[in-house]
Amino acid sequence: MAASDANPSSEHWPAGWNVRHVQETGSTNSDLVELARAGAAHHSVIVADHQTAGRGRLDRKWEAPPGANLLVSLLFKPSSSRPLHHYTHIVGLAARNASNTVFGVLPDLKWPNDLLIDDRKVAGILAQGGADFVVVGIGVNVGWAPEGAARLGDHVRGSSAELGPLDLLRAMLVEVERHEAMSNIELRATYESQLSTIGRRVRVELTNGVVVEGSAIGVDDEARLAVQFDSGETIAVDVGDVIHLRT
Ligand code: BT5
User: Fold this and answer.
1) pLDDT tens profile 182-226
2) For residue 7, how far is its CA from the centre of ligand 1 (angstroms)?
3) CB 102 within 8 A of CB 163
4) How far is 174 from 184, CA to CA, in rounded Å?
5) Disulfide: which of 33, 209, 237, 241 matches 205 by Cβ 3.0-4.6 Å?
6) Over the stretch 103-129, which tens digit does the pLDDT of each residue have?
7) Span from the CA of 230 to the centroid of ligand 1 (angstroms)
8) 45: which strand partners?
9) Sign of the alpha-carbon torsion through 167, 172, 177, 178
10) pLDDT on residue 4
11) DSSP conformation class of 74
12) Can you list the positions of beta strands (E) in the chain?
């Protein structure tokens, strides 16, 4: 679907970001991947009030009614030796910290990049890469959540209840830059220290449908989750759905 621009006159974004705000589109990720292939610059951003074909990972859907939530994609064209998966960590960490700055709510970070409140999903990330770029899309439930998920609005206190998705984005962009300024080593350490999955008992549904259970003991250089079975054997999980089990 062709994107229609929202009125940008009152919107101020941090310097260095090229933010396009649209009322409605199919998927901000699909739009930005197309723009990236056509030469869009590092730090191009598309934020939508509504997506008619919002995408999750593994061809799943991402739902949100018009105007309720943050639906945004960010383009990174790294020039350094930074691994592309670091950008998904940067966006996850930035969204977590910005939720705290704007709404006073600090969600848990679940491997690889979901944000949770009380073990319910409040945000999800979808990264799509090209040869020299990565588009990181994130949906954050601000005012609406589907059954079984969480929204920031239920946990906000005081005047920040009047703030919305674009306020969250503004704070997020500042946080993204703060994390981009970190060295690879510092970023990895920050990610691991904030990842609530480490040390938890987890159930992992692998992409081939096999379900395994064990303890999450760490993350390796490729950001794979190390899961140790009760037998002592360890596997590295690349892609999969992780559920934190209650102990
Ligand atoms: C994700 O997928 O968590 C990635 C979501 C990325 C969405 C953003 S929005 C901006 C950008 N443009 C896009 O088109 N996408 C990105 P996954 O882990 O596969 O989770 C998807 C599953 O979460 C669905 O199958 C539903 O069960 C559930 N779900 C759908 N909408 C949700 C919501 N608003 N909150 C919580 N869970 C949701």
Assistant:
1) 999 999 999 999 999 999 999 999 888 889 999 999 999 889 999
2) 26
3) yes
4) 18
5) 241
6) 999 999 999 989 999 999 999 999 998
7) 32
8) 19, 74
9) positive
10) 61
11) E
12) 4-5, 18-25, 44-51, 70-76, 108-110, 114-117, 120-129, 134-140, 201-206, 211-219, 225-228, 234-237, 240-244
- The Cα 178–Cα 101 span in angstroms is 14
Report the SS3 class of residue 147: coil
Beta strands 18-25 and 44-51 are parallel
- The token duo for 211 is 């379900």
pLDDT of residue 130: 80
Mutate to test the pocket of ligand 1, among 62, 116, 140 (most ligand atoms within 8 A of CB): 62
Q: What is the 3-state secondary structure (H, E, C) of 159-221?
A: HHHHCCHHHHHHHHHHHHHHHHCCCHHHHHHHHHHHECCCCCEEEEEECCCCEEEEEEEEECC
Measured in Å, residue 203 CA sits from the centre of ligand 1 at: 20
Q: Which atom of ligand 1 is nearest to the CA of 69?
A: 34
pLDDT in tens, 52-85: 999 999 889 999 999 999 999 999 998 778 988 9
Distance (Å, whole) CA 73 – CA 194: 22
For 99, the 3-state DSSP assignment is: helix
pTM as predicted: 0.94
Alpha-carbon dihedral sign for residues 113, 59, 166, 20: positive
Q: Which residues line the pocket of ligand 1, CB cutoff 6 A?
A: 27-29, 51, 54-58, 60-64, 71-73, 121, 124-126, 137-139, 141, 145-146, 149
DSSP 8-state code for residue 152:
G
